[in-house]
Each structure stands twice: as structure tokens, then as C-alpha cells.
């Protein structure tokens, strides 16, 4: 279930309701002699027995415990949750082991701090989570480690919540999405998966092969275009900015819903290449004054704390609007999402835990926290 679309069609005013007078009820007059005698009042009902689960302590009635029922999870989303839990096992197992003891004590907190740091959560986020757990344990009087684990799930959800935001499609035509990332992060593959989901949802997509820096990048994107039956704009040895301009112009002329610009992968330390990214952004704006509408960075979950540095560097050049985090199934450093949330909260639109199409999904803070500490 890949329900990230939030189309906003133009609002049409609802017609004013027309008031219709209710039909008059006929009046029936009953002669006093024939008026029915009202029945006697019913006897008082006996007091109901105590609810199941309740009981008496001394002379006070104990009310039954009301356990809220969680809303049912769609089968598709549950399948994704299962894959996410398996994918995050390398990261989560080290943290979950902290809560296998018999009591909550200073040793547990020390182990938890170490486990969070090893997961590349970062010092600021680790301090936030540790303090949140300690305060809630003290406030609730929790004594069992499993209670502390549940408190950590809530604290992590709270920390990650600002990253949870849907990608909006439909406010502009076309919606221009510019995608960047370092080589090997899974940028072009993520574009292909995103294109597939968009096409399956009925969106018309145009791809721009502006990654002229990497060998075979254009061919790889062309395979995705052919597989998804979408159009692609490319040039043999063309300038990336020129390819981007042509693609956005073509998207407007052909009334496409989405134009995705695949830019060249580069390290943030390669200043001349980062300047080329800035140039692509300027040229895209010349083709459409409101574009790009989304600037996404694809980051590899294996990079850990380095991912935070990438987010800061690319945001300084491009002004990021969202992230795609890939390869979370192959890393023990999945805590870096907490570091991003604490220090540079750029929304995470999608996360990936494998190579298959269904292994890329929309991000949910609660699902991630539950899967990490399953």
C-alpha cells in the first residue's frame, strides 16, 4: 500500500440545501370516554451485576480495566510492517537486548546509551531519548525493563514525528521532482520504484536522464522508463542542465502529471559538481518559475552519521524538501534517522528495506519505532 498521494483538485462550492416543509400530521381527537387508560409504571429493574473483570476490595467496587482497541491494520501495511521489522533487525537487536534484564537500574541506562550511540543515533538524540525514558519511568513508577522499552518506543515516535509528511502530487502540473544523492546510494533505482508506483496510480510521468556523469546511468533509467511505459528525455553526452530544461518544458507541453529529474551522483565535498547541481536547479526554474516543487535526497542507511552530514551539505546547496532512505535492511546504523530528526529534520518521504518494488514504502514514525524495537 503506497498511499502517499494527496491530490488537491479545485474546490467547487456545494449547492445550498433547499428547505422542504415537513408534511403536516393529521390531528386525531379521541373522546374522553374512549381514551385509553395509561398502563401502570413498570417495576424498578434489578441492579445489574458487577461487570466482568471488576470486583470488590473492601467496600469499594473496582471498575473493569478498559483496554483501548487498536484500529485494524490493512493486510498490505501489515506485510510491510513485517518486512520492516526484519529489515531493521540488525539495528534493533542490540537495543532490544538492553531490556532483557530483571530490573530498571543505572546499568540498564548505561547499556541503553551505548546501544543508541552504536546505532548512530548521535549524541543529541541519544541524550533526548535517554532523558525522556528516565523521566517517564520516574513519573509512572515503572519497574520492569519491558515497561522502559515501551516508553522508549513512545519517545522515539515523538522524536521522529516531524519527519512524517506525505509527498503531494497534483498541486502543480507537472509536479517537478529533482532527485540527488551520492553514487551508490540507490538514487536511480529509487526513481524507478517511485515511477512504478506513480504510474500504477494513474499518474503520467516523464523522466529526465540528467545523470550524464555516471556511465550507464542513462541506460539504467531508460530500462525503468520502458518497464513502466513512461517517456524519457535524454541526450547523448548532453549538458545535465540542458536535459533538465528540455524535460520540464516537454512535461508542460505534454501535460504530464510528474517530471522526475535524475541528477548525477556526487559527494558533497566535490564543490564543482555541487555547483552543477545548483545550476540544474536554476535552469529548471527558468523552464517553470514555480519548479522544482520537490528536491529529494537519496541516502544510504549504511552511511550512519555521515548521512546527517550529507543532508546538511545538499540542503545548503539545493534546499531539500524530502529524503528517501534506502538499504535499511543491511545496516546496524538505522538510528541515524533519530539523529536527522534531532539536528536536521528534513521530512522522510520513503524508506527502503530491499531491492524489490514493494520494499520501498512511505515513512511512518510509529511504524518505524515499533519495528526497530520489535
From TrEMBL:
Membrane topology reported for the UniProt record: Peripheral membrane protein
EC number(s) reported in the record: 3.6.5.4
Major localization listed first in the record, in broad terms: membrane
Record PANTHER family: SIGNAL RECOGNITION PARTICLE RECEPTOR SUBUNIT ALPHA
Region ranges (Disordered): 1-23
InterPro entries recorded: AAA+_ATPase (IPR003593), P-loop_NTPase (IPR027417), Signal_recog_particl_SRP54_hlx (IPR013822), SR_rcpt_FtsY (IPR004390), SRP/SRP_N (IPR036225), SRP54_GTPase_dom (IPR000897), SRP54_N_sf (IPR042101)
Nucleotide-binding recorded as keyword: yes
Annotated Pro residues bias: 10-23
Pfam families for this protein: SRP54, SRP54_N
Biological role: Involved in targeting and insertion of nascent membrane proteins into the cytoplasmic membrane. Acts as a receptor for the complex formed by the signal recognition particle (SRP) and the ribosome-nascent chain (RNC). Interaction with SRP-RNC leads to the transfer of the RNC complex to the Sec translocase for insertion into the membrane, the hydrolysis of GTP by both Ffh and FtsY, and the dissociation of the SRP-FtsY complex into the individual components.
Broadest EC class assigned to this enzyme: hydrolase
UniProt family annotation: Belongs to the GTP-binding SRP family. FtsY subfamily.
Complexes and interactors: Part of the signal recognition particle protein translocation system, which is composed of SRP and FtsY. SRP is a ribonucleoprotein composed of Ffh and a 4.5S RNA molecule.
Binding site for GTP: 181-188, 262-266, 326-329
The name this protein goes by in its record: Signal recognition particle receptor FtsY
Domain SRP54-type proteins GTP-binding: 347-360
Keywords tagged on the record: Cell membrane, Cytoplasm, GTP-binding, Hydrolase, Membrane, Nucleotide-binding, Receptor
A GO molecular-function descriptor: GTPase activity
Catalytic activity of the protein: GTP + H2O = GDP + phosphate + H(+)
GO cellular component: cytoplasm; plasma membrane
Cell compartment(s), UniProt: Cell membrane; Cytoplasm
GO annotation terms (biological process): SRP-dependent cotranslational protein targeting to membrane
Amino acid at each position: 500500500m503506497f498511499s502517499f498521494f494527496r491530490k488537491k483538485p479545485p474546490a467547487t462550492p456545494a449547492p445550498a440545501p433547499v428547505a422542504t416543509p415537513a408534511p403536516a400530521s393529521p390531528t386525531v381527537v379521541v373522546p374522553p370516554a374512549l381514551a385509553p387508560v395509561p398502563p401502570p409504571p413498570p417495576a424498578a429493574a434489578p441492579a445489574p451485576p458487577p461487570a466482568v473483570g471488576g470486583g470488590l476490595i473492601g467496600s469499594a467496587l473496582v471498575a473493569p480495566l478498559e483496554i483501548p482497541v487498536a484500529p485494524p491494520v490493512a493486510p498490505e501495511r501489515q506485510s510491510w510492517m513485517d518486512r520492516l521489522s526484519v529489515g531493521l533487525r540488525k539495528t534493533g537487536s542490540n537495543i532490544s537486548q538492553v531490556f532483557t534484564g530483571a530490573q530498571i537500574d543505572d546499568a540498564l541506562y548505561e547499556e541503553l546509551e551505548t546501544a543508541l550511540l552504536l546505532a548512530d543515533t548521535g549524541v543529541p538524540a541519544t541524550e533526548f531519548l535517554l532523558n525522556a525514558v528516565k523521566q517517564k519511568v520516574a513519573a509512572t513508577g515503572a519497574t520492569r525493563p519491558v515497561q522502559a522499552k515501551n516508553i522508549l518506543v513512545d519517545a522515539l515516535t515523538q522524536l521522529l514525528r516531524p519527519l512524517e509528511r506525505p509527498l503531494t502530487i497534483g498541486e502543480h502540473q507537472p509536479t517537478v521532482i529533482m532527485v540527488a544523492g551520492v553514487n551508490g546510494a540507490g538514487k536511480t533505482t529509487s526513481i524507478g520504484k517511485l515511477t512504478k508506483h506513480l504510474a500504477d496510480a494513474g499518474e503520467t510521468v516523464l523522466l529526465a536522464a540528467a545523470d550524464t556523469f555516471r556511465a550507464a546511468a542513462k541506460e539504467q533509467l531508460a530500462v525503468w522508463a520502458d518497464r513502466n511505459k513512461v517517456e524519457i528525455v535524454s541526450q547523448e553526452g548532453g549538458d545535465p542542465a540542458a536535459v533538465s530544461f528540455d524535460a520540464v518544458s516537454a512535461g508542460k507541453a505534454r501535460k504530464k502529471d510528474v517530471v522526475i529529474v535524475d541528477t548525477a551522483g556526487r559527494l558533497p565535498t566535490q564543490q564543482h559538481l555541487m555547483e552543477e547541481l545548483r545550476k540544474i536547479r536554476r535552469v529548471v526554474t527558468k523552464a517553470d518559475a514555480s519548479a522544482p516543487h520537490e528536491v529529494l535526497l537519496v541516502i544510504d542507511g549504511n552511511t550512519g552519521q555521515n548521512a546527517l552530514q550529507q543532508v546538511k551539505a545538499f540542503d545548503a546547496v539545493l534546499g531539500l524538501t524530502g529524503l528517501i532512505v534506502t538499504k535499511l535492511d543491511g545496516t546496524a546504523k538505522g538510528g541515524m534517522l533519530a539523529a536527522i530528526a534531532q539536528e536536521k529534520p528534513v521530512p522522510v518521504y520513503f524508506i527502503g528495506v530491499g531491492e524489490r518494488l514493494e520494499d520501498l514504502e512511505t515513512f511512518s514514525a510509529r511504524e518505524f519505532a515499533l519495528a526497530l524495537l520489535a
